[in-house]
Design a protein that fits this description.
single chain, 365 residues, 15 helices, globular
Length: 365
Amino acid sequence: MSRQNLFLILLGFIYYFFFINKGIVLYDEGYYFHIADRILQGEIPYKDFFLQFSPGYFYLLAFSLKIFGEQIVVGRLLTLFICLCILFLTLKISEKLGFSRLHQKFLVFAAVVSFGFPLINNPSTLAWIIVFASLLLVYSYIIWFKNQNTKHLLLLGLFLGLCLAIKQNLGLYFFVATNIFVFLSSKGKFSSKTRSLLIVNLPVLFISSLWISYFFLIQSDINRFFELVTFNSRYLSIYPFSYPSLTFLLAPDGIFKLLPYYLPIVFSFILIKEFLNKKKNMNILYFSTISLIGFFGTLFPTSDLLHVYPFFGMFLVSSLLFFYKNKIFRYWRILVLILIATGFYLTLFREYYRYQPQYRYQKIK
């Protein structure tokens, strides 16, 4: 690890650690710990209780509680570690894609931490580990793209399987996108491209078959699997999808509320146009595509307007890299700086959920 990256990660640790002792949010953070506690008591997801997500994160949380003690701070420190890994991977990816100078790395750092875990309503959330897994996807794709090595293609498939085991809907979206990119990026004829698809999907099938067989064939039944798969559609039938209204523009600060939700839409159209370019940079396109999929996949169909922030920092970094050698980069950078300032403002000066009494002052029975 370079000294620059080490310095920025230490800086991120200091900033994040300041928020570790915030009050517990029972209906979010408490839910995650409740699931982990039931696992520790010997109960099995889908068999003994319904779980709307893949089981990966909850078993990781339960394992951490088992090893380090059943305390709220353990889950928060786990999230802190994951967020520092996110920062490290984002810096490494940015280096490989052209951002190697200190001022560029500091811009990447600010984009990530300004929308870091202190901004959302609880430190211990599923969102951060799926962001980390998606960055592992991007990093492994970049390495594979350079050398077209079978070993790195298998590694890419391993991380795809990990994404499916953490959050099924995003894992599925990443699976489709990655298969398209692998097919387009593989060198050689159609047979060679097909072989690459078979290789990348082998680890996915192996990992997915293990946990699906265990939870839905051995421990429970296949109907529970269909309940998991159809959860989002059932949720949408109860709670219609919504998006921030453009009427916010009538408010003095309305533009700042809308930018985090509408800028990715604008960037999506630019990205689609870039796909038609013969001289496109596949690495940056993949990074941008995964970040947008993570963003919109979190929003739809659950209208989860708060928990998209983890992917928003990733989106900002990918967009900076996308426009780096473009004439409009200087203007896009100003826009990103405004959004970074907005992220820090929302974190430090707005109430939302962050300034509840510290955990030690809460009387939770």
